[in-house]
Amino acid sequence: MEVEQTALPGIGLRHDFTTRKGQRVGVVSHRTGRRDLVIYDADDPDAVCHVVKLNDEEADALAELLGAPRIVQRLNQLHEQVEGLVSVQMPVPDGSPYAGRPMGDARVRTRTSASIVAVVRSGRVFASPGPDFVFAAGDVVVVVGSEDTTAEVAGILADG
Amino acid sequence: MHHTAILFLEFGAIVLALGILGALALRVGISPIPLYLIAGLAFGTGGVLPLATSDDFVGVGAELGVVLLLLTLGLEYNADELVTSLTGNIRAGIVDLVLNAAPGAICALLLGWGPVAAVAMAGVTYATSSGITAKVLSDLGWIGNRETPTVLSLLVFEDLTMAVYLPILTTILAGLSLASGAVAVGVALLTVSAVLVVALKFGRFIESFVSSPNNEVLLLKVVGLALLVAGLAQQLNVSAAVGAFLVGIALSGELAEDAQALLAPLRDLFAAVFFVFFGLQTDPAKILPVAGLAALLAVVSMVTKLLTGAYAARRAGIGKAGQARAGIALIPRGEFNIVIAGLAVGAGAHPDLGALAAAYVLILAAFGPLAAKLVQPLITSIAKRS
């Protein structure tokens, strides 16, 4: 999902995105602190058909309603996972046989049962990379698994 | 009667009449600017109820109105926004300038008013009223629309163009010889760029000087600084209005928001006085002969603004309905056009220019918002059908 940000000179900022069902929604943040929740017309995707004007307090309340249960859910998931699991960051070293090759070639999950959950490249995070994600030397790989399996992944990245 | 008593009576009558007209405009849902102009026509020479004593007083009030109008306009933008929209929309901005300055300039030349009046009329037909357009966008709930950033950046581009255009106009109006005129334009442009650079690079220092937690101190500092710079700019032939606009741009962030909130009532009062004053200076008897011409000019520049908006929106990847909305949103003319005409009339560009500009702005300030309101349902139905 990609959130688009647009500057509105003299007014503020607009963020908007399209839901999986094709509905476009956005938030206009006025410099005065007012927040407009805007819903776009399905027939005329450039036009807003509904505007909900919210003051500071109302916008906070809405954000809490939408966001709080989600945070609790995420925390619970983390708790379930925490026992016996470790998350380790490791580099793709200069001489790695997988530098310049897609991640699928390393078959990390099949060989070690640990998962690569993210790759950090020069400050940018690529979350949940797919099998065709191409490694580069110097990437930092975030691996989740047990103590032993994550160590195996480090070995694979270094020596193949 | 005592002179002061008459002054208060007349000024009070004017302001009260404006209040009543404003209430009327609010009820009908149109911009009050055309009504203020009509009120000025009624109070002025040749009007229904000519007032004479308060002319000077109203004149000073009108000058203050222009300074405050441009100061608050400048406060709406920060320097970064100006630079971004300048670099991102230069092509659409130039199309806007060429398409919409042309009708006024050509009209003045065809009438044989000469090149000076042509430059002034170009400005009268070029500038969209950012005040009325912003109000249309927010009244109709178009702020979230995807074509709105295009419209807003065109407005910013126009305002920046004005910052360059007004000093050139005032120099030309001063009627200097070609050589000294060129020098004066050069000085004017240098001053504008110098102030812009100061605003961009050292805005923070100006802000820390002006900033105060006390509303009263903040108000006095902002107005004082704006008037000082306006006076200096006027002395350098750059026009007071541009000086105030640049002060507004130099201030940004929370400070600008606070200042805007404090200045809004002052600006509303004196801006209304300015519209009345322009009406006062215009003889209503002169309007009728130019009414047809003004209507024709209004129709032509409505079409050119529609084309401008559609072109800019299409470049931004907006659909047909949004392109039409962008064009319609740009139609209203108002404060700037009257400011330009006011400068030209003050310098004696052409006796009929004031009447033509007044009639022209009357039509477009009233019709622009109405067009947006009336045309929207039509656009929506067409968009839904296709």
UniProtKB/TrEMBL annotation, chain A:
<protein>
    <submittedName>
        <fullName>TrkA domain protein</fullName>
    </submittedName>
</protein>
<dbReference type="InterPro" id="IPR026278">
    <property type="entry name" value="KhtT"/>
</dbReference>
<feature type="domain" description="RCK C-terminal">
    <location>
        <begin position="75"/>
        <end position="159"/>
    </location>
</feature>
<dbReference type="InterPro" id="IPR036721">
    <property type="entry name" value="RCK_C_sf"/>
</dbReference>
<dbReference type="Pfam" id="PF25991">
    <property type="entry name" value="KhtT_N"/>
</dbReference>
<dbReference type="InterPro" id="IPR006037">
    <property type="entry name" value="RCK_C"/>
</dbReference>
<dbReference type="InterPro" id="IPR050144">
    <property type="entry name" value="AAE_transporter"/>
</dbReference>
<dbReference type="Pfam" id="PF02080">
    <property type="entry name" value="TrkA_C"/>
</dbReference>
<dbReference type="InterPro" id="IPR058776">
    <property type="entry name" value="KhtT-like_N"/>
</dbReference>
TrEMBL record, chain B:
<feature type="transmembrane region" description="Helical">
    <location>
        <begin position="328"/>
        <end position="349"/>
    </location>
</feature>
<keyword id="KW-0812">Transmembrane</keyword>
<comment type="similarity">
    <text>Belongs to the monovalent cation:proton antiporter 2 (CPA2) transporter (TC 2.A.37) family.</text>
</comment>
<feature type="domain" description="Cation/H+ exchanger transmembrane">
    <location>
        <begin position="16"/>
        <end position="369"/>
    </location>
</feature>
<feature type="transmembrane region" description="Helical">
    <location>
        <begin position="97"/>
        <end position="128"/>
    </location>
</feature>
<dbReference type="Pfam" id="PF00999">
    <property type="entry name" value="Na_H_Exchanger"/>
</dbReference>
<keyword id="KW-0813">Transport</keyword>
<keyword id="KW-0472">Membrane</keyword>
<feature type="transmembrane region" description="Helical">
    <location>
        <begin position="6"/>
        <end position="26"/>
    </location>
</feature>
<feature type="transmembrane region" description="Helical">
    <location>
        <begin position="33"/>
        <end position="51"/>
    </location>
</feature>
<dbReference type="InterPro" id="IPR006153">
    <property type="entry name" value="Cation/H_exchanger_TM"/>
</dbReference>
<protein>
    <submittedName>
        <fullName>CPA2 family monovalent cation:H+ antiporter-2</fullName>
    </submittedName>
</protein>
<feature type="transmembrane region" description="Helical">
    <location>
        <begin position="222"/>
        <end position="249"/>
    </location>
</feature>
<feature type="transmembrane region" description="Helical">
    <location>
        <begin position="57"/>
        <end position="77"/>
    </location>
</feature>
<feature type="transmembrane region" description="Helical">
    <location>
        <begin position="287"/>
        <end position="307"/>
    </location>
</feature>
<feature type="transmembrane region" description="Helical">
    <location>
        <begin position="148"/>
        <end position="166"/>
    </location>
</feature>
<keyword id="KW-1133">Transmembrane helix</keyword>
<feature type="transmembrane region" description="Helical">
    <location>
        <begin position="355"/>
        <end position="375"/>
    </location>
</feature>
<dbReference type="InterPro" id="IPR038770">
    <property type="entry name" value="Na+/solute_symporter_sf"/>
</dbReference>
<feature type="transmembrane region" description="Helical">
    <location>
        <begin position="178"/>
        <end position="202"/>
    </location>
</feature>
